[in-house]
Amino acid sequence: MKKIGFIDYFLDEWHAEKYPGWIEEASGGQCKVIYAYGKIDSPSGVSNAEWCAKKDIELLSSIEEVVEKSDYLIVLSPDHPEFHEELSQLPLRSGKPTYIDKTFAPDRKTALALFDLARLHGTSIYSSSALRFATEYIEADRQGIETIASIGPGRFENYSIHQIEPVVSLLGNDPRRLMWIGTENSPALLIQFAGGKLAEIRQFGWECPFGMAVNYESGSTKLIKAESDFFTAFIKGMLAFFESGKPAVEESETIAIITIIEYGMKAAQIPYQWVELPE
Fold first, then answer.
1. How many angstroms separate the CA atoms of 84 and 8, rounded?
2. How far apart are CA 231 and CA 19, in angstroms?
3. SUPFAM superfamilies, per this entry (predicted)?
4. How would you write the pLDDT of the chain (279 residues) with one tens digit per residue?
5. Pairing of strands 31-38, 2-8
6. How far apart are CA 26 and CA 20, in angstroms?
C-alpha cells in the first residue's frame, strides 16, 4: 500500500473530508491517506486532532514528518492558496510526486516560483480543477472553436478556476488580454486568446450548474453540461500521476489559468477596459 500525506492550512475542510474515501475506493485500497498536518485548527470547525481521530488518520506535528513518512504528497488549502508557497516548500524539495490543490497559486509570480522549485529538485508537480475531468469537456471537439460562453456558480477568487480550467483546456495556453464585464454579485470576464478566440465566463448563484455553449467557425454550436462524475475521474487522474510521475496538465496551462485569475481580479477594478496579459 502506498501512503499519502495531507498538508493543509487546516484539515476540517471539504476537500480533506472527501479525498481519503475517494482515494481508497478508486485505488482499491492500494493508496490510502495515512498522515496529515494542519498549520492551524479550523477557525469555525473541529480541531486538527479531532478531525484526524474521526478519520483514523495520524496527525503529525510538522510538514517534515509528513514528507519523510509518505510516498505521495497532497498540499490542500483549497480556499487559501496564499499558503501554498509556504506549505509546498518541503514537498517540492522531496522528489516525491506532489499534488497541489486548486487554486494552485494566488498569482503568476508564485506559480512560476513553485514550478521552478519543483524542477530544481526533480519533483513531479501537478494541479487542476476537478471540472477539467468532466467527460463532456474532455470529449468536446477542440478544432475550429471560435467562441465559448461558460456559466457556473461561486465567487470569482476561489471558484472561477472551475470555468477557466476547462476553457483553457479547450482554447489553449495563450490568453492575450481580458476585460471585466460583471458585477459584485455576478462576476464575469471576457478573455481573448491567440487567434482572436473569445471566451466569456459568468458566475451566478450557487444554484447555477456548470456548463458552456461552444461556437465553431463552421457556424455550428455545441451545448455542454458538466453532468458526469468528474470527481471520480479527477481522483483517478491524481492516482495515475502519483504512479507515473507524469502530470495530466501541462505547466503552461496551469500558468495561463493562474494568470487569468490574477489579472481578472485586477480588471475588476477597471471594468470594461482591456487588460493585457504577460506572455
1. 9
2. 10
3. NAD(P)-binding Rossmann-fold domains (SSF51735)
4. 999 999 999 999 999 999 999 999 999 999 999 999 999 999 999 999 999 999 999 999 999 999 999 999 999 999 999 999 999 999 999 999 999 999 999 999 999 999 999 999 999 999 999 999 999 999 999 999 999 999 999 999 999 999 999 999 999 999 999 999 999 899 999 999 999 999 999 999 899 999 999 999 999 999 999 999 999 999 999 999 999 999 999 999 999 999 999 999 999 999 999 999 998
5. parallel
6. 10
Backbone torsions φ then ψ of 27, nearest 5 degrees:
-95, 0
Residue with cell 486532532: 49
Give the number of other CB atoms < 10 A from CB of residue 225: 11
Residue 174 contacts by C-beta under 8 Å, 6 or more apart in sequence? 193, 194, 256
Q: In the structure grid, which three cell numbers stand for residue 54, read together?
A: 474521526
The rounded distance, in Å, linking the Cα atoms of 172 and 255 is 11
- Check if the beta carbon of residue 173 is closer than 8 Å to that of residue 252: yes
**C-alpha cell at position 4:** 499519502
Rounded Cα gap, residues 181 and 273, in angstroms: 9
